[in-house]
Design goal:
globular, 337 residues, six-stranded parallel β-sheet, five-stranded parallel β-sheet, 14% strand
Length: 337
């Protein structure tokens, strides 16, 4: 056995998720590879108030984890106290969309402050890693982006000449605006995903010919490759998993600057679109050029973004942290902001 990890989720969606649920997919796919490599992995997927007790029961019941890795910012303060009491090493990863770092009313401030209570941080992006160090000078932080299970996605050498936007229909992801743009400019964009509960009726698109409903995870793996391009014109993101999944399926991508974290903008199949005019131009160009790049896109996803490569980096980071002097969790400021 290499070691024992306890991964902590949100408790609101099963792991693995039956459909929508990026954080749950990330936890499941990393756990699968870690187990195959000889790690013992426990998953605690309960409400944040129940998470500390669940971890304590694991530790006292003969499954004491070497690392407690929390993917739920709201659970971090309580877990940090429990881990301090048991001298457990705790890692936090914030999945909160945090793109507009210059905003006066920075919406991610509270969850990032909560996440900063952990002694160790695996951050999805470099700005988040830097923020953790600012909020908690004694913590250790490394960048650990999402990966993708490339082989789970069917690959077709040709697409259908259309773009697709996959994700919960929500104002933050701007599908209502993108849908109106697609209708106005006759853009070949289809939409897949559930509607957010707080979305007003005027912004719902279920009556549109462009809305294809919801997909299960199996449908996502099988059907995504039928399209030529993914569009994610979101107003705020962390490191969106769906972009990596699209490349695994051979799709070009059109993303907002806020959704472009960790991407190599020099690649010809990656298009950054800031305005509606940018989106319209980029979608047409990406769909047209995609056939020439599909095999390269798939190969790049496997070489750069596979979970196997991500877990290689993860194990290297954990080895480095385990061999060094760990921050003292009792010295951290655990007051909730």
């Amino acid at each position: 056995m290499k070691g024992r990890l306890c991964l902590v989720g949100h408790g609101s969606i099963p792991i693995p998720p039956p459909g929508w649920g990026a954080v749950e997919t990330v936890i499941h796919e990393q756990a699968t590879i870690l187990r195959a490599r000889g790690w013992e992995v426990d998953i605690v997927n309960v409400n944040r108030k129940l998470a500390p007790g669940a971890v304590v029961r694991l530790a006292l019941g003969g499954r004491r984890p070497d690392w407690v890795w929390c993917h739920n910012e709201k659970a971090v303060p309580g877990l940090a106290l429990a881990c301090s009491a048991l001298s457990l090493r705790m890692i936090a990863t914030s999945h909160t969309p945090a793109s507009d770092w210059a905003a006066r009313d920075f919406p991610a401030h509270r969850p990032l402050c909560r996440a900063s209570r952990a002694a160790f941080h695996l951050a999805l992006t470099k700005p988040v890693a830097t923020t953790m160090k600012i909020l908690n000078r004694k913590c250790l932080a490394e960048v650990h982006p999402n990966g993708v299970a490339v082989d789970l996605f069917r690959y077709s050498p040709t697409g259908n000449g259309r773009a697709v936007c996959v994700g919960q229909i929500h104002h933050r992801k701007r599908q209502p605006e993108l849908h109106r743009l697609a209708q106005r400019e006759d853009l070949p964009i289809d939409f897949v995903g559930p509607h957010a509960q707080d979305l007003p009726p005027r912004d719902r698109i279920e009556g549109s010919d462009l809305w294809l409903g919801e997909w299960s995870r199996g449908e996502m793996h099988d059907r995504l490759t039928e399209w030529s391009c993914l569009v994610l014109w979101s107003a705020s993101e962390a490191h969106p998993l769906v972009v990596l999944e699209a490349m695994a399926a051979g799709l070009s991508v059109v993303v907002s600057p806020e959704a472009s974290a960790n991407l190599d903008r020099s690649l010809p199949w990656i298009h950054i679109a800031k305005t509606e005019e940018d989106v319209a131009t980029a979608v047409r160009e990406a769909v047209h050029a995609n056939p020439a790049y599909r095999s390269q896109i798939r190969a790049c996803a496997k070489e750069r973004w596979s979970w196997e490569k991500a877990v290689d980096r993860l194990e290297s980071i954990l080895d480095k942290w385990a061999g060094g002097r760990a921050p003292n969790p009792l010295s951290l400021n655990l007051d909730d902001h």
